[in-house]
Amino acid sequence: MKFAMRGPEPWKTNRARVLRSHNVVAEAKLWRHLRGRRLGGFKFVRQAPIGPYFVDFLCREALLIVEVDGGTHGKPEELASDAKRQKELEQLGYAVVRIWNGDVSANIDGVLQILLAELSNR
Predict the structure, then answer these.
(1) Which of 40, 43, 104, 120 is the most exposed, having the fewest neighbouring CB atoms within 10 Å of its CB?
(2) What is the C-alpha separation between 100 and 98, in angstroms, rounded?
(3) CA torsion angle for 99, 104, 110, 111 (degrees, to 10)?
(4) What domains does the chain contain, in order, with CATH numbers?
C-alpha cells in the first residue's frame, strides 16, 4: 500500500508517524485533552516537524510548542541540548512550554490551565 505524502520531504511525514505510534503514557494522556480542538478551540498536532526537530505537540495558529519531558531531560547534557533546541525554535517565532511527565499524570487540570494561559497570551 502506498500513502500520499504531504510536502516536499516525505521522510519527515513517515518519521512523525513512527513517533506518534510510540507515545509515552503522559503524551497519550495529554493528547486526549488536546485533540479535536478540545482545549479552548485550539487545534494541536502531534510530533510535528519543525526544521530538524520533531516537537511533541504544536498549535500552529498560536505558534505554541508543548514538550512533555521525562527523567532523561534532567541530565546536564540533555538540559544543554534542550536549551539549544528551544532557543532555535524561539528564533523561528515559537513559544515553548515544557511539561514534566509527572505533572501530566498527577495534575492534568493544572497543566491544561497553564496551556490555556499560554494560548491566550499568544
Answers:
(1) 120
(2) 7
(3) 40
(4) 24-121 (3.40.960.10)
pLDDT at 20 (0 to 100): 47
pLDDT at 5: 43
Name the amino acid, one letter, at 44.
F
Residue-wise pLDDT for 38-94, tens only, equals: 999 999 999 999 999 999 999 999 999 999 988 665 678 888 999 999 999 999 999
Residue 88 C-beta-side C-alpha neighbours within 13 Å: 12
Conformational region of residue 53, where left means phi above 0, alpha means psi within -120 to 50, and beta covers everything else: beta
CA 66 to CA 88: how far, in whole Å?
15
102: Cα within 13 Å, side-chain hemisphere: 4
Q: Which helix (H) or strand (E) holds 53?
A: strand 53-59
3-class DSSP assignment, residue 74 = helix
**Tell me, what's the pLDDT at 34?**
98
Model confidence, pTM: 0.80
